[in-house]
């Protein structure tokens, strides 16, 4: 690709293997500003403007605190509401799938189900017996003696009838 200019028009599109069309190694595509050469002292050179927000003490303290929290893993959650809802649904689906998987592993046979029912019935009977015993322990002594006398009287009456 030959041009009538000294430099190629589109150097980034040129073939890098062709040495006649490429730029010298120190040269860039963009033009460099004239004020960097330093030969004109009377020109006013531009300075970078100071950002008043970044220079404020409050901003620096807040930035320092955010950096420390990020290092500790306490960065604030600035996620959109939709993303939060989707993550929550995904977590719930994972938990549900894990529960279903555990239930599939724990499928019980009919025998195991019957044994569980019998065990529950026995536990209920034991609880009822304990309640009755506690009630008897809480009753006053004279009521216990009266019930004992009735039993002995019934036993003696039963013996007399049999003889």
UniProtKB/TrEMBL annotation:
Source organism superkingdom: Eukaryota
Pfam families linked: DUF1151 (PF06625)
Region (Disordered): 1-27, 129-163
Protein name as catalogued: Family with sequence similarity 107 member B
PANTHER family in the cross-refs: DOWN REGULATED IN RENAL CARCINOMA 1/TU3A, PROTEIN FAM107B
Biased composition (Basic and acidic residues): 152-163
InterPro entries reported in the protein's UniProt record: FAM107
Keywords for the protein's UniProt record, in alphabetical order: Coiled coil
């Amino acid at each position: 690709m030959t041009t009538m200019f000294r430099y190629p028009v589109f150097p980034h599109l040129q073939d890098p293997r062709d040495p006649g069309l490429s730029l010298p190694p120190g040269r860039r595509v963009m033009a460099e500003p004239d004020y960097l050469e330093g030969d004109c002292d009377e020109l006013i050179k531009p300075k970078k403007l100071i950002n008043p927000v970044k220079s404020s003490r409050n901003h620096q303290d807040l930035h320092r605190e955010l950096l420390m929290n990020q290092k500790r893993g306490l960065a604030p959650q600035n996620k959109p509401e939709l993303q939060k809802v989707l993550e929550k649904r995904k977590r719930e689906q994972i938990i549900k799938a894990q529960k279903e998987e555990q239930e599939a592993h724990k499928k019980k046979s009919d025998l195991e189900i019957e044994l569980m029912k019998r065990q529950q019935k026995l536990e209920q009977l034991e609880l009822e017996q304990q309640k009755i015993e506690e009630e008897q322990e809480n009753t006053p002594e004279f009521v216990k003696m009266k019930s004992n006398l009735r039993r002995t009287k019934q036993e003696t009456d039963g013996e007399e009838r049999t003889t």
